[in-house]
Amino acid sequence: MSSPLSRSIRSYVLRQGHFSNAQRQACETLLPIYGIPFTENTIDLDQIFGRSAPRILEIGSGMGETTAAIASQQPDKDFLAIEVHLPGIGSLLELIRKLQLTNLRIISHDAVAVIQQMLPGQSLDGVHIFFPDPWPKARHHKRRLIQPDFIALLCERIKPGGYLHLATDWQHYAEHMLQVLRDEPRLTNTATDYAPRPAYRPLTKFEQRGLRLGHTIRDLIFIRNSA
After folding, report:
1. Per the annotation, does 44 bind a ligand?
2. Closest Cα partner for 144 from 15, 17, 9, 16?
3. Of 51, 145, 154, 206, which sits most exposed with the smallest number of CB within 10 A?
4. Strands (E), the chain
5. Is residue 55, in this structure, part of any structural domain at all?
6. Does residue 102 belong to any structural domain of this protein?
């Protein structure tokens, strides 16, 4: 029987929106440099980044402001961003060029397939998933990225002592996330429920808009157990 993770349901919809000439040009000229093509084979991250360093995976980098800011603030770590929306990829590539970042790479493919097939076991020191699509309608909850099987897969790729950091501004999704993470025996919460926003995660335009609308932002930070 196939794993639930192999099903065809996707946790995203390709809402491309406006694709500017600058973003298009960045994709054409910079993605061959900073992009990693999808492959069904395990990749060598030391070879890709040209060094051995802590590795952080970001799933759904959006327009890239947060990803680039964190990578810029932490040059001692390498960052791998997974994103499928071309305008966001183009925007992040522009930021990589502007900030002259050498510690950031992008994979444009489905996150589940990338993690399953490309990333070695216990190769990650941290995983960021900031504001994933909440799919608020009950009939769409099956599309939510944060599900037990997906978290179990991440735990196989996170090193003992590494962390998983989620953030959302949807109360019901936050409650769902908290329960899923609590139910995973390889994870331990760093807080009683929700954690304070750490200094390394900047406020995004999206987040600021949510705050103006009265949304409460919730961070969840769990540590991968050693056993």
Report:
1. no
2. 9
3. 51
4. 55-59, 78-82, 104-107, 124-130, 158-168, 187-189, 218-224
5. yes
6. yes
Is 205 annotated in some ligand binding site? yes
Residues assigned a catalytic role: 133
190 is in an annotated binding site: no
Would you say 110 is a known binding-site residue? yes
* Chain segment 136-182, per-residue pLDDT in tens: 787 868 889 999 999 999 999 999 999 999 999 899 999 999 999 99
The conformation of residue 35, written as its DSSP 8-state character, comes to B
pTM recorded for the entire structure? 0.90
Strand partners, 166: 129, 220
Query: pLDDT tens for residues 190-225?
Result: 999 999 999 999 987 778 888 888 889 999 999 999
| Nearest residue to 130 (alpha-carbon basis) of 90, 169, 102, 100 | 169
**Could you give the number of structural domains in the chain?**
1
The answer to whether 159 touches 136, Cβ cutoff 8 Å, is no
User: 61 is in which domain, residue-wise?
Assistant: 40-224
Helix intervals (H) in 74-163: 86-99, 111-117, 148-157
